[in-house]
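Long-time lurker, first post.

We've been arguing in lab meeting about whether zinc ion would sit comfortably in this protein at all. Half the group thinks yes, half thinks no, and nobody has a model to point at. So I'm putting the question to the forum: if I give you the sequence and the SMILES, can you give me back a predicted structure of the complex? Inputs are below. Any interpretation is welcome too.
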Amino acid sequence: MQVFLLLLGAVGALSLPFDDEGIFNTNTCGYESCHKPKPGMLNVHIVPHTHDDVGWLKTVDQYYYGSRNNIQKAGVQYILDSVIRELWEDQKRRFIYVETAFFWKWWVRQPVKVQAAVRDLVSQGRLQFVGGAWSMNDEAAAHYHSTIDQFTWGLSKLNKTFGACGVPRVGWQIDPFGHSREFASLLAMMGYDGLFLGRIDYQDKVNRLKQKTMEMVWRGDDTLGKSSDIFTGVLHNTYSPPPGFCFDVLCNDEPIVDDPESPIYNVESKIATFVELCANYAKSYRTNNILITMGEDFNYQDAGMWFNNLDKLIDYTNIKSAKEQLNITLFYSTPDCYLKAIKDANPQLPLKKDDFFPYASDPTAFWTGYFTSRPTTKYFERESNNYLQMVKQLQVLADLDKHNEFVLNELKSAMGVMQHHDAITGTEKQHVTHDYERLLNQAVDDAMIITKQALNKITQKDANKPPLFDFKRCHLNESRCDISENNDKFIVTIYNPLAWTVKEPIRIPVTDANYQVFGPDGKEIETQAIKIAKAVTDIPTRISTATKELLFITEIKALTYKSFYIKKSTKTKRSNHFEYFTNINEYFDSIKDNFETEKDNFETEKDILKPIEPIVLPTVEYKSINLDVLKDASNFKELDSLDKFLKGYKHDAKVSRMRVQYPKMNEDEMRMLADEPRTVERFDDEVSFENQYFKLDANKATGEIQQISFPDGSRLNLTINMYYYPGCPGRNSGPSDRASGAYIFRPNATVPTKLTIVKTEVANGDLATEFRSYLNPNGYLNTKIYKNLDFVENEFVVGPIPIHDGVGKEYIIKYETNIVNNGEFYTDSNGRQMIKRKLNYRPDWNVTLAEPIAGNYYPVTNEISIQNDDVKMTVLTDRSEGGSSIVEGEIELMVHRRLLWDDAFGVGEPLNETAMGSGLVVRGKHRVLIKNVKANTKKHVFQLHMPVHVLFSDATNIKYDEWLKLNNDFSFIDKDLPNGVHLLTLEPFDDRLLIRFENYLDDSEVQVNLGSIFKGLTVKNVKETMLAANIWADDYNKWSWNNDSVEKVDKIEGFVVKLKAKQIRTFVVDYDVKK
Ligand SMILES: [Zn+2]
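Top reply:
Settle the argument with this. Predicted structure of the protein with zinc ion, as tokens:
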């Protein structure tokens, strides 16, 4: 792998350098190279394209090489080979390519002669790149951090290889299942001129077709305003050719037979059909231009078939038009050229401000299941992003050798693949999931070399000394770690990738209760040993001897690493360092009787999380039909009838609205809250856990948490419960027979089934209190509060989801309160802006919902909240999930799904993940914040999105005294960045740096001095680029629409960067390393 990467690097270095002269120097490519539309005629832009999924039914390599053609006849290498030959044949022809992951794989394997021909085609605009990111990313589960990275990575390849002519101008999101507002904002910040979409909700589409609002100006962000505007066009027929005009080797449509002597001659009828179809398309658009997509999934393996027929279609139609004065003209075009024609026509366009979620393709097909599908892959992707950010930072900050960038690039590529709309979404086949995980795991492992080099170099204050430690990562999500389990002495190193100080609980899996933990200064720090719950030790994939977690809470400064020396202690600690109670009544008794010994009844507990025997799944013949009615324009009649069907199908969500004011506390209670933190008080029927921020009360009869109260006397009902929706079975013969599957969420009930509490446990100590409930069937919740931390952490373990009853299940966690939110809630858009949601409502059209639950689900990439005039409850997620507020005062998040039926959107498998012979078990966490409605909680969001890294080293060969002499606490910057400033990116960019700052505040400008942030670097020169480092900011001219004015972008003065509210600014920085 590494040898091959060397090759890649060499090719990149030989091609055009990324420099001030090279990159934005235009040739005859771009808008100049377009075939010109004719005034007064209907201009039909024929756009040949292929849609090449970076993994779906086959793996990335299977698709590239055309392996396993029994699964799907698809080989990307043949597509590119064939298209290039056909483009070369005829100057008029055009083609677009989208996925740089595939293009690059192909490019580096071409002989110089082919590369030269491709350069020519690109420089003449005959081959154009659209989108141009590493993959066509998903827009629900993908985080903006990774989206920006994968654009930067893909575009850098195009920039370096083709210069200005390789710069894509339009976004091409033709297959993702719904579209986010934040993505539109990101594209605008990258300087794209327009965006094309394939899939929008079918009701929305019917309206837009009727109202000619298929094209619009989309405002990406209210705070950023006009600067986030981007032209957005919805394609008429997703990305497919019109019915009857698919000329691919994979299609069965009739070719154009132009020999009049032939008995199958069909020119007249073909042209007549096509002209009629164009006239029909044109009815829904505002200018005299229409875009016809000529391509499908993995089309153009034999490009000659397509081009031969398109040549004829164009020529014969134009001849007929001239002869019969039809006022229609056809020509080869691209999305760029179509966009330019629209721009020149200058139509009045409607303004859109919300997003395109959720996406429904018919009344029962809400594509809201994939927000949660494959939760462990979604977590691994999130974790790997954080890992990528750390190694990028360390590569720069520790000034490591340039050749490390090969492993950095491997990880960038793997993360780019993971953003694909069949990767992070979980909508791929099972064997493809395994391949994605293999790819990512390998890349993360390889990149570990950077961490090892950087930390060894700084720890020893000398780059030339041999490495002292072998820093390793552990599976902390399963509470397991070889090093801490098997050594009496070890070192834990923590790195904070954020540019501000954080305070975090650290949990080390161990086999004993007695350890001493020494901080970097040699002082022993406070710890608490907590028994690992049986729900965790029973996870089938967990291979570990650890029985306890050693908890400590540490404060760690910005961009800092800190090491802790941990050794097994011979002395026994005070018994009240950890207390276990197998149910809450025992806990209650212990307080009453001042009972102070460790109780441990775990072993005798009935094994409720025992894996379930694999069962035989129902035999189903999976139809290969594609139920997506929007994929075929001939189905629009069906759409109309669906519309009518819906009008008579008024079915609203059953919402029980509680109107409860939360009671004030009495004086005694107020006084109690003023006591020292960590005291435990009891009421007649409840027990309480508290720190200085809040107090949680649990009902000892039911074992449920009941309310949370605050020092100001306010309190809120709060219960946390797990439920499941039974997944709908179905053979997918039509909308009424739809199954819940990898894409689609279709619960078979409007009220979920509540899991019952089997037993509760309390683990109580000086640093944390955990309130654990074991739930039936196969659920576990652990609500934790920590000393000095202002959030409630809610850990969950789900699975194996039982299916012995033949019913697939979708597990949710509900946070139930008495907040009156009037059916309104907020979800984040790709982890950045928040979007207001309203139950059973769409801002742009009158929605009719046949699916009251699934139709109200939205993607939650980072956070979901409900609020009233005073209080806001936010739940933060550690991965992307689907969520909603179906019932007043509640937030629900779907955390795991196991289903027995395919939903017939192509994947052909039920979403039934297993591991070690039973259903996959998922462990994760939410953090719950209950704050004043005006409080900015963004720092909490970042802290869960980019948590501190915890690395482990064996300390057998190093004595504590020697360790103390090392550099164990080192900050790469002098102080925290100012409030409001997030260091989004710090990475090597050839011999320069790429730095992004983000202002995460909604309402105020902030500034930061780039020249004086990093201790070891001297900043020499700073130049601003657009968001993906794709266009110099100075060279960018934003297009305006509706004759609107365009705001001029601020210039940077010296090294002082001013950031308007919500602004992200990107800089390429020349620097020296201070020696
Ligand atoms: Zn796709």
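For your lab meeting: The CA atoms of residues 627 and 734 lie 7 Å apart. The radius of gyration is 30 Å. Whichever side wins, do check it experimentally.
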